[in-house]
Every structure is written in C-alpha cells, then in structure tokens.
C-alpha cells in the first residue's frame, strides 16, 4: 500500500473515530447547561492535562516553530522559553481562577469578568477578544491541515480541500458532543501527537546521522552554518523581525493562550484545583519541554542538514515525514500532526461557541432560553465559527507562526483583568476596559499600519499599551466593591468575610 | 498592609523573585550568545543555555506546584463547590 492510500485510509478511520465519540457524547443526558458546556465539571488530571496540552499543541507548534527555527537559526531557541512560561503561569493563576468560577457558578470567562468587575462593557469586550483570538487560531489549524494533506499527498490534495475536510469533521463531533466529546477526542489525540512528535524528532536525528556519514547527530549544529551561513548562529540586528526584542516580546505574548477566554473555559471544568499542579509541572514543563527543547529543536536544526531550500518554511516537518519515514512511521506521524491541529481547532470551537451562546445569545437576546435552547445555539455557533475561520484561512495567507502570534496577541489582552481577579484588587473595571481597548488598537496599528516598530512584536505593543493604560486609569477610579472581593479574594482568605476585617480591607483597597 | 489583599500573600512573595531570576537567566545570556556565538566542541553554547533554562524552569514549576501553599483553595475546596452548586441552582 502506497503512502497516499495509507494516508487516506488512516485519516478516514481516525476522523470516523472522532465523529463516533461525538455521537456517543450526544447521547449523554443534558439537564443543565454546564453538562454540555463544561461536561459537568468532571475532568480529572489525565483528561484535563491531555486536553489542555492537545489544545496548546497546534499546527503552529508542530509545523510553524520547526520551520522558523530552520529559517532563523539556532538563536530562535530563545523563543522556546514560552513553553515553561505557560506552565509557570498555569501554576500561579489557574487554581485561583478555578476557585472563582466554581464558587460563583461561572461557566464562561465573560460571566466571571463581567460579574467581578460589574461591567457590561467588559462582558462585550471578552466576547470580542474571544472572537479575535478564535478565528485566526482555528483558521491556522485548518490551513495547517490543508497544508499537511497537500504535502503528504505529494500535491494530489489541494490545500483548500484538506482544510474543508478537517473543518467538516470537527464541526460534526463538536456540534454533537460539546466539550465532553472534545475532551475525550483531545485525550486520544494528545497521546497520538506525543507519539508523532517523538517519531518526528528521532527520525530527524537518524537522518542527520545518516547524511553525516556516522558523525553523530551533533553534526547538525555546525552543518547548519555550512548550509546557511553565519546568520544561522546569530540573531538579526535590532529593529528587524526575529531580533531579540521581537523574540522576547512574542515569547511573553504566547501566555495569551492561557489568558484567552476560550482556553480559560477549560479551567472551570476541572474536578479539583490540585489537577493544575500536575498539568503545569508534569505536562507543560516536562513533557512539553522534552517535545520542544529536544525533538522540535532537532527537527528545526537538523532540518538544515537535510534540506538547504524549502518553498515554505512550514513544510519542513512534513517534508521530513514524506521523505525519511517508513510507511508505518509515516502514518502514525501524519496522524499525530493532524491530531495536533484537530484537537486545537475542536477545543477552541467548543469553547468559543459556548461563549457566544451564553454571553451573547442567552444574556442579551433570549434571557429565558432553556438549557436545551442554549445548547442548540451553541451548536449553531460552531458552524458560524468554522465558516468564518475557513474564509479567513483562504484570505489571510501569512506564515503559520505569524497567524498564531496574531491570535495570541489578542488573547493576552485579558491578562490585567485576570491579574486583578486573582491577585490585585486594586485593578478597576474602568482600568481593565480602557486597557483592553488600547491594547487591541495597538495590536492592529503595529501589525497592519506600522509593522513591528523597534522590532517589538505587535502583541508586545498591545501588552504595553494595555498595561500602562490599565495602571493609570485604575489609579484614579473606584476600586472593586466588597461584593466583588467576596466573589474572588475572599475565597482564599476567608477572614475578609468577618466584620472585624471587612472595614480595614475596604480601606486598604480604596487607599 | 497585612498582606491580606495586597496582591500576593506574604508566603508567596518569593515567586516574584524566583520568576525574575529565571527570566533574567533565560533572556540575558541568550541575547549575549545570539550576538557572539560560542561553541563547546560540536555544541553551540546557545543550545546548552536553552537546555539549562528549561531545567531551571522545571525546578521553578515544581516549587510553584508542590511547595507553594494555596492554603485557601485546598481548605475551601468542598465549601467552594457547594457554594457554586447553590449559585447555579438558585
């Protein structure tokens, strides 16, 4: 059986399993909205961690970074610090966000932010951020899938066809099974992408060893310079793309994955906050660290020894799969790559559709809608988002790395609001609202009008504009009420509820 | 301030310092090495530094996850869930 037939049969079986899980999940009884939207808060450490990992590990992470490392050179490794940063951020923030959501019965981040800051404008802004984040991120996955089918089929399947095929499969199982189906498929896909990424890294090392005539895989470090020149070992000068301010700012902005409303929704679905210890330490720092600092680095750096030219940087991993793997390894790795994209698209689709159904439809258009009707609208929203994402992926043809960092830039705009709920009660609703608006404007200006001023990534400018505006406005506006403090800060410091402590706390906060 | 609502509780103030040290280590030598590449044998020091940053972050994340005390969340877990159920149903 040739590689093309293997790819078709394997993909068919794999997508059929995903859709089957969606059908099974749709038979589960839904009595409350949270049964569909949050799977009844039932996720334990393994499912939650793999779901979160699979959602993070996307087309950008399995194709984009390796291709950029191949192009920019070894200094791009500086950028990989965003991986442990995601784990560190999760350990510090997620237990508290979980507690706030569970105590107050919040399902979506918009409910949490809107209620704590007592602001309708903020509820709308969270929806806007969720939308601005999800569309490019889902588009990125669909384009990545189209690209994967195209390269691995030897050009027989057009990019657009591949994107539409994955889009249809994701629509089906998310539409039917909601977050439960997404989480179960993500768990399976998490395992698949782990295996696929490992095979990809090992294959690259073996291929490098073979072309070096047995000099060992470290041959690739110096061979990169031979093949690409000195630029392969030094960063571009200040002010240019991929200079150190760019890499540093984009690394920090990737935390926008954790603060983005669609990703944050998964936090509330955990059984217990203790799960985040495992998720941040074992999964994000150790497992993802191995995938990045070892396997992805080997693919990106070793790829230079294997290929001196590429029509598109993003094709590096796929070319290695296509040219250097046995049929079985080819199939498993190809499915692992597709799993990375499928799981990310599904996770964001499920959660963004929930945000639109609960926070837009239920709150502003049909406040008396039953849980069943909310679920129905949530399902319809899945269709809307996929159609928009497909259109976006056809029109916006930038590299995967750029597309991903644009999405996370918008996601990062929620950072001050989250910091206010979890750690700093001095942050006000006016500060958060003004900050988000200033940040979004800064991102748009520094990407579409004046790209990367001083070599700093648009998300970096967004964070600077957001943070400074939020700080200044918060300084001169009314601090959150005692009622708001009870919704969050009082959870981990119950003494705030006693009358003796209430007054000093309010005074301290208002000071 | 008693540390009650001053942002980060007293017990956790070391997080900020640990994070700063990690960040400086991850960024500083990286920027320097990116301008002046050095090799130890076949390995670029830049790669060794990246691996060291990763290992340091594992230690840091272990401290965060397993040594930092989220007293309230652990202690109030059941109460938090009960209150949440009441909020949703009521």
Describe the protein's architecture and organization:
The complex is a heterodimer of chains A (511) and B (90). Chain A contains 23 helices and no strands. Chain A has 511 residues and is mostly helical. The N and C termini of chain A lie far apart (73 Å). Chain B has 90 residues and is mainly alpha-helical. Chain B contains three helices and two strands. Chain B is elongated and about 60 Å long. Helix content of chain B is 72%, strand content 4%. Mean pLDDT of chain B is 68; it is low at 1-11 and 71-75. Chain B has helices at residues 13-35, 45-67, 71-89; strands at residues 39-40, 43-44.
Short description:
By secondary structure, chain A is mainly α. Helix content of chain A is about 75%, strand content about 0%. Chain B is about 70% helix and about 5% strand.
Q: Provide the succession of SSEs of chain A.
A: HHHHHHHHHHHHHHHHHHHHHHH
Query: Please, how many helices of chain A?
Result: 23
Principal-axes shape call of chain B: elongated
Query: Would you report the number of β strands of chain A?
Result: 0
The poorly predicted ranges of chain A are 501-505
Q: What is the topology, as strand order, of the major beta sheet of chain B?
A: 1-2
How much strand content do the residues of chain A show? under 5%
Essential attributes:
heterodimer; A: 511 residues; mainly alpha; 23 helices; globular; B: 90 residues; two-stranded antiparallel sheet; elongated
Secondary-structure blueprint of this entry?
The complex is a heterodimer of chains A (511) and B (90).
Chain A: H1 3-26, H2 33-37, H3 45-56, H4 59-72, H5 82-104, H6 109-117, H7 120-152, H8 159-211, H9 219-228, H10 244-253, H11 256-259, H12 261-268, H13 275-306, H14 316-324, H15 327-365, H16 371-395, H17 400-411, H18 415-422, H19 429-449, H20 458-475, H21 482-487, H22 489-492, H23 499-510
Helix pairs in contact in A: 1-8, 1-15, 3-8, 3-13, 3-15, 4-13, 4-15, 4-17, 5-13, 5-18, 6-7, 7-8, 7-15, 7-16, 7-17, 8-13, 8-14, 8-15, 8-16, 9-13, 10-20, 12-15, 15-16, 17-20, 19-20
Chain B: H1 13-35, E1 39-40, E2 43-44, H2 45-67, H3 71-89
């Amino acid at each position: 059986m040739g590689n093309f037939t293997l790819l078709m049969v394997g993909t068919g079986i794999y997508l059929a399993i995903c859709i089957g899980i969606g059908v099974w999940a749709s038979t589960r009884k839904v009595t409350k909205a949270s049964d569909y939207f949050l799977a009844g808060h039932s996720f334990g450490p393994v499912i939650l961690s793999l779901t979160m990992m699979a959602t993070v590990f996307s087309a950008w992470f399995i194709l984009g970074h390796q291709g950029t490392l191949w192009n920019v050179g070894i200094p791009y490794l500086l950028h990989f610090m965003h991986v442990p940063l995601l784990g560190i951020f999760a350990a510090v923030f997620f237990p508290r966000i979980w507690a706030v959501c569970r105590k107050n019965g919040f399902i979506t981040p918009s409910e949490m932010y809107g209620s704590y800051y007592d602001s309708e404008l903020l509820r709308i802004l969270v929806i806007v951020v969720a939308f601005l984040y999800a569309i490019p991120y889902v588009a990125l996955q669909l384009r990545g899938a189209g690209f994967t089918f195209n390269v691995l089929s030897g050009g027989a399947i057009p990019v657009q066809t591949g994107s539409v095929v994955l889009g249809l499969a994701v629509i089906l199982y998310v539409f039917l099974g909601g977050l439960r189906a997404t989480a179960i498929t993500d768990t399976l896909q998490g395992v698949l992408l782990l295996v696929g990424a490992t095979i990809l890294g090992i294959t690259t090392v073996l291929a490098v060893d073979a072309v070096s005539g047995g000099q060992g895989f470290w041959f690739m470090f110096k061979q990169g310079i031979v093949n690409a020149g000195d630029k392969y070992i030094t960063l571009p000068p200040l002010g240019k793309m991929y200079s150190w301010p760019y890499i540093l700012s984009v690394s920090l902005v990737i935390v926008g994955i954790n603060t983005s409303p669609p990703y944050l929704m998964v936090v509330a679905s955990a059984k217990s906050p203790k799960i985040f210890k495992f998720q941040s330490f074992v999964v994000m720092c150790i497992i993802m660290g191995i995938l990045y600092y070892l396997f992805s680095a080997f693919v990106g750096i070793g790829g230079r020894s294997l290929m001196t030219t590429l029509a598109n940087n993003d094709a590096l991993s796929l070319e290695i799969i296509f040219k250097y793997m046995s049929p079985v390894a080819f199939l498993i790795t190809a499915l692992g790559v597709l799993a990375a994209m499928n799981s990310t698209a599904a996770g964001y689709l499920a959660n963004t559709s929930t945000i639109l159904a609960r926070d837009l439809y239920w709150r502003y258009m049909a406040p008396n809608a039953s849980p069943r009707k909310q679920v129905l609208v949530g399902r319809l929203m899945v269709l809307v988002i996929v159609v928009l994402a497909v259109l976006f992926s056809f029109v916006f043809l930038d590299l995967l790395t750029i597309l991903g960092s644009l999405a996370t830039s918008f996601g990062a705009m929620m950072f001050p609001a989250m910091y206010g709920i979890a750690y700093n009660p001095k942050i006000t609703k006016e500060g958060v609202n003004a900050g988000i608006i200033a940040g979004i404007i800064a991102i748009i200006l520094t990407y579409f009008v004046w790209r990367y001023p001083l070599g700093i990534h648009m998300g970096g400018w967004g964070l600077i504009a957001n943070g400074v505006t939020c700080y200044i406005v918060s300084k001169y506006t009314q601090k959150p009420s005692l009622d708001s403090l009870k919704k969050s800060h009082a959870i981990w410091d119950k003494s705030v509820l006693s009358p003796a402590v209430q007054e000093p706390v309010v005074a301290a906060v208002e000071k | 301030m008693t540390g009650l609502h001053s942002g980060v509780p007293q017990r956790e103030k070391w997080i900020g310092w640990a994070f700063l040290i990690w960040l400086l280590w991850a960024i500083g030598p990286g920027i320097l090495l990116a301008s002046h590449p050095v090799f130890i044998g076949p390995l670029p020091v830049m790669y060794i530094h990246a691996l060291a940053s990763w290992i340091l972050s594992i230690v840091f994340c272990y401290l965060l996850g397993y040594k930092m005390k989220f007293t309230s969340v652990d202690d109030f877990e059941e109460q938090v869930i009960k209150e949440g159920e009441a909020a949703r149903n009521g």
